[in-house]
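Submission sheet (multi-component)
Chains listed below:
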Amino acid sequence: MNKGMLTVGIILLSIVSLLLIALISGTSTGSELDYYLVKETAEAAMEDAMDLKYYRDNGTIRMDKEKFVESFLLRFADNVDNTRNYKVGFYDLNEVPPKVSVKIESSSSIRFDNYSILMTTTYDGIAESNKKEDIYIEDAIKKKEVGNPVILNGNSYTDNIE
Amino acid sequence: MNRKFKKRIGVAFTAICVLALCIVYLNTSVQTKAQLNDTGGGSSSETCLNKKNKDYYNIGIKNNDASRTITLSIEHGSFDVYVYATDDATENALGTFQFKLDESNKSKTISYGIYNTDVKMKVIFVLNARVEGYCDGVQEATYTDSNGNEVTIKVSDVINAYISENQVMAIPRGSYVYIEELQLAGVQENATMENTSYNGLCKAFREGNLEAFKDYDLATDYFKKFNPSIVGGSEYQNNYLKYCYQTQVEYAYKDDMLVRMINNALRSYAADHVQTSSTPPLEKPATVLQYTPTASGIETEKLTCDAFSTKEEIAASGEGYYVNKQQFYATATEKTTGNYISCDRTCEELVTVEYGPPVATKAGLCFEYKVKVTSKYNCTSNPITINSPKPREFCTPRPYCHEAIGLTDQAGPTQEFDGCVQQCDGGDYSEACVNQCYEKVYETNTETTSVLNLNYANPVTVKELSQAFNYYRWDLNGTIAADIVLNGDGEYYVEDGIIKWRNKYGECGPKDAACNWAGLGRYYFLKVPQKTINDFKINNKNDSAGNPVWHYTIDPSGFKRAYYNGGYYCNSVCSWGGCSTDDYLNPNDAQETYQDALDSYNEELLACKAQASCTTKTSTYTISVDNKLTDGTSNKWNYQADLVEKDNTTQNNQLNGEALNGMTIVLDSGGTCYGENEYKDFDYMTEWSFPGTWINNKTGEISYQKPSNSNAWHNKEGKFCTSLKSANVNTDWWIWKIDPAKSKPKEEISIEDYNILAKATNFGYFNWNISIQCFYAIYDDYNRECTDPECPNGLSYKIRSVDNKNLFPSTNGSITSTHEYGRDPGFNWSVGATNFNNESYEITPYALMYHIQSSETYTEDNIDYEFILTKETLRELRNYNKSRGNYTKFDGNVINETGVEAYQSNLISSGFLINPNAKGRNAKIGCNNSEDPLTCETFITDYERSLKGGE
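Outcome: structure written.
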């Protein structure tokens, strides 16, 4: 192989390598799709959504669904790169006891014939009491002293909060 | 007769004359009373030793009650006759008169008319004995005065004879003086006025027709209970309101005055028919604690809640809450005496104090502690009327006119003048006749005056109507307007001891329409007002030019007075008399005094009853709690409220000395003393607790004061919420209460801290001061086994990343089946946390664990929310974050549709983030979890069904 062909070969190989690097880079999990980003965001949002009022009424912890979702979205939007679109799904949210499942989907920025590579990250988390036993609450549940519906004035109500 | 004998006779005669003069002097200085033979009573005196005696002169004084006249007569001599008339009650001069009687004019009849007060009439006959010659030959004489001195007087002397204490009359010595003093009984004329209310308000009163009084200020409560149709009319007719049972009355009252009289009559009747109260004594329980009332109240011993009430009692709800109860009893007797009422009263009071059991709780949770005090007391009250108010009579002063000596009798009505004119021109009052009669009656001939006209006696004379209607304002039809009859715009009053008349219009005559005859004293309308009106009418005469010549008018003092050609004909001195200045001179005065007396009476009566039934004081209630924290500090919360028992309202609501805005610790209050129907079993009842704690809907922060923006907070009414950092307290009792199987024997349990204190001050009739102490207990460390090394009191949890197939992995990470826990979960994921108390928000941790571990999570059926975040959306969210400043400034709403307050995000509900294809975009807010997000149906297993009772 003459030098000219070798030079061309090297150049082509370099181009292929660059393309390959770009492709790999575009499809791998960057910082915005890092599992830990999702985990930290979800756990922080769960913390935000803890309902202390419910605790004072019932002695157990509750996570408010929409508070969690709102807080997650706001935190997530601040932390991801604004270079692509995301689909964020919340699955089987449970308030008492608190449990969340979050799924983040995004497509690669490099497309082949209008097809892109789909990337997915999921997170599952719960909030768990530190105490394994709470005889006081168990007793209160049996006596119906907690967990009873708190309907103000006999009707549902909508209330602005700050 | 020899000379010596004549001389002795002369000496004797001289001595007799001197002695006679002395007697004259002495006797004329003494007021004596005489009584005519035909009237009886009295005494007489003769004051001159003379040849003649009374029988010779034959002085006669005859009174004729029927005709109201006195006839004075003599047989011999020439007498100056003086007549003095005075009001027997007030000693005020009523009139004087003087004339002569001699052998050519031996008698004179005096008309003294009609009057309503007793009159003392003194008649003095004076004969100048020297002139008459009966004392001739005696020029002087001596007598011995009271000091033993010999006094010589001459016949020519004039001596002062004291007619009375205030009247001195100069009498020539040697006069024959005869004094008679008559007491003439007053005559009260009967009323002749029609009672215009007899068939009006009086009829409504008699028949109990309340509707007729709708436009008047009637004492309705009294009327409903005591009107004549209910209690009978006899007492009203005889005592309280004769007026309404008479068709003819002395004085016709206006409606307002009549209603006032009716009110007073009703109240007077009620006062005289006071019902004494007598109720059975209270039953004293065997366990009651007895106290003796003191002026400062009763301080009871401090009550302590029973820490070891049976669990069954404590578990009971509603009325069963009050497991602690103590009763107190006191009795006292007292007597008070007022101006009208003597009040004997014996009272006993039974106070019941009920208070709740101690509370076992958990740091951060809320509890209630209630106390209720009730009072039932019984008083036997016996108000005795010692001085009952009675209707007050009023006296209408009459005009008393008299002439100064030397003047003609021009006072008051001019019957003599009228009679003269009537004879002259038939009553036409021509100028010539008027002048002629005036000269005849008033200027020339006092001797011809035949009447000692005590003008108060006959003030009104019925005259025929004349044709002179054109001068005064009156009703041509002869009817009298009510305000004229009643003359209500004027009043009698006393000034410097003199009775006067005034009206609010100032000086005015009947012609002045605005005066409405108010200028004329009420007396002239008292009997027959039409007569007075007619008097004014018929005596109105005009001259040929139409100018008023002769008529009656009203003088500034309210007297009817003759008026002639620009001046008063009648110059008599007139005054209002016949009433004492201590009398009530006007109907208003009498009714007002009567009403005031009734007011005072009723105040005393009510005071007797009020003291015997309800107090109107203010009682004070407090409740405090000492919330100790894990850091060793203590938060003490002291609540207070005053209950104004008078109107059953609270005030002075405080927390630690500061105003407790919009909240009070008083849950309920009432009893018969407040007119409450709900608590008839009690006279006083107050129930109090904590005023409530405000919890922030978003953060769970608590506030013991009402927040300014209370919409963002929820009030746990009646509850005190402990701090999340509350320290353990009274732990032994907590175990006894919550886990009795592991508790010490209760005999070994001591209560280390009574941290709840309640107090009632000044409560009930005897002002009880009651204190109660109890406690709450926290033991968050009890049986503690933690999933995390850090396991503080209160809200304590850990957020974990989990594997959906193995939520709680064992130490080796394995589980045998999807419905098993690999390890013991935290309490909220354990079976013990299962809670079906709220059917709309059931909590089933075990079923949830089983569902998660046994199914795929990331399926389309499980999507609750799904969002597409584009570059533009992300940019908007970042801008949204910048505008808000933090992630937890939740600005949505709180919705409570399932018994749990759930947040509704504006960000989500706005829809711009939602993936239009997401199934879970309409996830129902307030659902705990569900297989179908639209129905909130809860995951449940056979295990939970068994817990629910096999559903």
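Remark: Chain B touches chain A through 113 residues (CB under 8 Å).
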